[in-house]
Amino acid sequence: MDEDDLSRLADHAIAWAEGHLGSTAYATRCLAFVEDAYERANGLELFGGDTAHESAVLYEAATRTGPPPRGAFVFYDSVGELLGTRRNWGHVGIALGDGRVIHAWDRVRIDPAEHLEDLTPPPGWDLLRRAGWAPAERFLRGSRPRRWTTDAPAAARHDQATRFGSGT
């Protein structure tokens, strides 16, 4: 994939993500949101970790600490309890290339990347801590074409309920 292809894929993903600004369908589903942005907007299927933290490790995000380019996944450590397990679940958004990140928190929103560490976490969770970023060429590695036929937010809710139960 050349730079023009990567730029086009990022532009499509960001446009899709911006089309969901304000939506609460992805609350607590940050990884599903960023993956859906790339997948649904570009007819692809990505293969990352089950959590944002697992994806950050898989994509070696900690090795990249400078400003992320447009379209990169920006990762944060996010430690809290889910289903009786306290661990680093992670948080992720998409870099807009101007120091801001679009991400799913309480709703889909855009924030300056450095301000995510100031967001009020859910009860029992620690503040976010920047964990690095992954360029599109890294997380697109191994992706394959896919035709998506289901409603993305509904599918994200279903996947979340299947994986973690309906109480999250």
TrEMBL record:
Molecular function as annotated in GO: cysteine-type peptidase activity
UniProt cross-references to InterPro entries, sorted A to Z: NLP_P60_dom (IPR000064), Papain-like_cys_pep_sf (IPR038765)
Stretch list, region Disordered: 144-168
Pfam families assigned: NLPC_P60
The organism's place on the tree of life at top rank: Bacteria
GO biological process, one term: proteolysis
Residue stretches making up the NlpC/P60 domain: 23-112
Membership in a protein family: Belongs to the peptidase C40 family.
Protein name, UniProt field: ABC transporter related protein
